[in-house]
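debug: dumping io for the single-chain case to check the tokenizer round-trip. Nothing else runs in this session.
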Amino acid sequence: MSSLRVLIVDDEPLARQVLAEELAEIPSVQLVGEAGNGPSALRALEKLAPDLVLLDVQMPGMDGFEVVRRVTGPLPSVVFVTAYSEHALRAFEIGAVDYLLKPVSAERLADAVERVRETRRSPLESAERIAQAVNAEAPSGRRPKIVARRGHDYHLLDLDEVYAFRADGEIVWILTKEAKFIATQTLQAIDDRLDGSQFQRIHRGTLVNTDRIRKMAALSSQRWLLTLDNGLEFTVSKRQAPLIRDLLR
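debug: decoded output
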């Protein structure tokens, strides 16, 4: 059994110490780091990419729920740890695997770790659940986040980060400024979901973020070349060219 890499986030040093000592008694668990507030938690999540984060809810400045909403790297499993039982329902609604009430017993922590191991056998399901919860809590008008895979990790991407979706056989690539990910849905499902957004189909196999278009140049009387602001180039189909021209006027 591979070790479960864990990050502890709590603004109370003693609480972090207790959790660290209890984790040390659980087989195949590796504590990879600690953080004492939301911003440092986000930095640690990006740098360490843990499998599990034990996340305090009540922290000054940025609470645990906001930390989950702002994760940009690989999505870890989340177990919330707090002294307030009234946060339990919201914790599960936002996609947490478990919820631990302080003071946390060694037995209860071990149960939560085992539950995390079980859910990590279906990482896509866990990622989609978190995305659904984060989007449901987003303020009106905020664009939804989408789930993307890179290697064995799943990420939540803001739509503003995405430059294009491009189908390549059965794979749909998500293209960002400097990287690419694999989508978890078909291009048609993505197109349907993003109807009315800034994404427009320019070809049977391509959706582009029209906010990222830098220029459009004629290749012939029926073909156009679209260039995005990161240099990506796409050919616009004859059928879609009039619509794209209208959008750029």
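debug: round-trip ok. The mean pLDDT is 85.
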